[in-house]
Amino acid sequence: MYSKLAESYKNTTYKLDGHGARDMKVLKNAFDSVDSNTRADAYGKGAVINDFEAKMAHMLGKEKAVFFPSGTMAQQIALRMWCDEEEIHQVAYHPLCHLELYEEDGLKVLHPIESVLLGEKDRVLTLKDLMALDTDISTLVIELPQRGIGGQCPTWDELNAILDYCKKKVIKTHLDGARLWEVSPYYDKSLSDICAGFDSVYVSFYKGLGGIAGAILAGPDAFMEKSKVWKRRYGGDLISLYPYIVSAAYYLDQRLDKMPLYYEQAKVLAGYYNRMKSVYTVPEIPVSNMFHVYFHKDAEQVVHAIVQVMDKYNVGITPYIIENKDQDCMFEMAVGDAYQDIPKETLEACLLELDTILST
Amino acid sequence: MYSKLAESYKNTTYKLDGHGARDMKVLKNAFDSVDSNTRADAYGKGAVINDFEAKMAHMLGKEKAVFFPSGTMAQQIALRMWCDEEEIHQVAYHPLCHLELYEEDGLKVLHPIESVLLGEKDRVLTLKDLMALDTDISTLVIELPQRGIGGQCPTWDELNAILDYCKKKVIKTHLDGARLWEVSPYYDKSLSDICAGFDSVYVSFYKGLGGIAGAILAGPDAFMEKSKVWKRRYGGDLISLYPYIVSAAYYLDQRLDKMPLYYEQAKVLAGYYNRMKSVYTVPEIPVSNMFHVYFHKDAEQVVHAIVQVMDKYNVGITPYIIENKDQDCMFEMAVGDAYQDIPKETLEACLLELDTILST
């Protein structure tokens, strides 16, 4: 059943989500305009890496930025350094934090660090959650937007109240900005304004921006210098990271300015879903380019219906469905370049028919 | 003085070492023949990574191989897994081992592992060193060739005596094969023959092969499956590693068969140096494409002489000199594609004049 869904999605010309296939033209396009004689970076040195790091430090409003192969590596290292500095080896984050769910407990296995899960799985963490915390932590991690709940965010005031509270209590704050670009239009703030209250920040280049891989960690100068030692320790100080850096820079240029467009279109698309009888989105009104689509139907029925309309209208809705609680199932949606290509009437007819099939 | 040396080297048309400049045509050449529609790997899955891993497992004669961003990451992980399996958190290696010198103590900081330095800094480790060891170790690391001493190797018989002894004593053996391709012609053995006695092996793609970065760790099936968990823990399980994999595969195809040529030419070049009055190489007769060049002169005099002949003959001898003990200095040499381009008479005249200048 699920392989049929993936196959049907793959065969469609139009896709609702993403920037198109993750294939090698992503790299080729990024390098087409690059001079062959451009020097490679060598162990963190060279214009190709240092210029991009300087650009990112400026964009995020931090003293220094360092390019890492992955956010997993960058964030574990940031937390270890804050824990060492504060001499408290405990950090707090949302129960659906990447560090807790997708890193095989690297933070706890590679470091003497414990995690405290703050707030509830189905909502953003709040100042109230933080104030109720009855143990010492060196660092609070905030993910903006919180991917596991469809990319929700605290309000700007709530966010700043949390950050102010942390400053008062001498708790370091780290921003998991894996999808930070995507949420800037909602807050209607610059990236550096959003980052200003945080002690350190990580951003990613292959999600909303559609690069190949890679991450930036940014923060105070001495902190970032020390992060290079940890990067080497982890085996992340590759002789050359330029394949990721050049593509990161390229797709940042291509897509950063499109974030408001993706955001607006995500709201429109979520509106279509919410008008369907047995479908709802989380959040109801997206605050970024992403949201989760839930069905009050069992997965088999949903897959059958989606395959039927994808095959008929040539529109890829989703390649997968995750079974949730009983008789509920869901998938994640993130608007990118691919959405722009779909004729609006085709999309509307496709989703209308999906609604009809699911309602019978 | 040293910047003048680097500058002079950079300006030469011919280079004695390497495969030419580390610039972005290294990537562009590798990708020129790749179909744009080739799917990217995704978190360790997909034909581009899995096919290459299978090819490498076969070439190295191991059950399974896993592609890593770096050897630093791969080797720390291999040693941690062997230590856990043997329940002995101590490993032994040569004093000039990469793990000891260039990894900011990652092995000891990220893991509960101690190192035992075996043998002496200026020679390969021997069976006798190992037999004199008076503490328990889970694993012995052997680097073939031993880079820190000009790429020396134990004889085939000594190597096998060491491996047999380890088997008897239930000590795991790990091969640091950062330059393994380079030493296969000397042993006159296939890669899988050399690897056969080792429990695990790491190989690199950017040294003798001249790729961009990346490493393979190979070993038993269950061991390698477990290594993927650690790879994720380290933040090395990037969404896509294909920029390194495609280039690794490309330069493997281009250069693996040239290793005997590089080896023969290294012996010829070392011969030139050893005929010079105040110069000698380590080893005297190379056993791979590499060797170290030592001068019984102070560095200033050597740099001055080298710059003089590099400028005159347009041949890059070395971009750097390291001061060794009193009145001695050295540089490392590794023969690659660049050597092929130098007119033999130019090279001979250049080194003859260097000898003359150094002798006055």
TrEMBL record, chains A, B:
<dbReference type="InterPro" id="IPR015421">
    <property type="entry name" value="PyrdxlP-dep_Trfase_major"/>
</dbReference>
<protein>
    <submittedName>
        <fullName>Low specificity L-threonine aldolase</fullName>
    </submittedName>
</protein>
<dbReference type="GO" id="GO:0006545">
    <property type="term" value="P:glycine biosynthetic process"/>
</dbReference>
<feature type="domain" description="Aromatic amino acid beta-eliminating lyase/threonine aldolase">
    <location>
        <begin position="41"/>
        <end position="284"/>
    </location>
</feature>
<dbReference type="InterPro" id="IPR015424">
    <property type="entry name" value="PyrdxlP-dep_Trfase"/>
</dbReference>
<dbReference type="GO" id="GO:0008732">
    <property type="term" value="F:L-allo-threonine aldolase activity"/>
</dbReference>
<keyword id="KW-0663">Pyridoxal phosphate</keyword>
<comment type="similarity">
    <text>Belongs to the threonine aldolase family.</text>
</comment>
<dbReference type="Pfam" id="PF01212">
    <property type="entry name" value="Beta_elim_lyase"/>
</dbReference>
<dbReference type="GO" id="GO:0006567">
    <property type="term" value="P:L-threonine catabolic process"/>
</dbReference>
<dbReference type="InterPro" id="IPR015422">
    <property type="entry name" value="PyrdxlP-dep_Trfase_small"/>
</dbReference>
<dbReference type="InterPro" id="IPR001597">
    <property type="entry name" value="ArAA_b-elim_lyase/Thr_aldolase"/>
</dbReference>
<dbReference type="GO" id="GO:0005829">
    <property type="term" value="C:cytosol"/>
</dbReference>
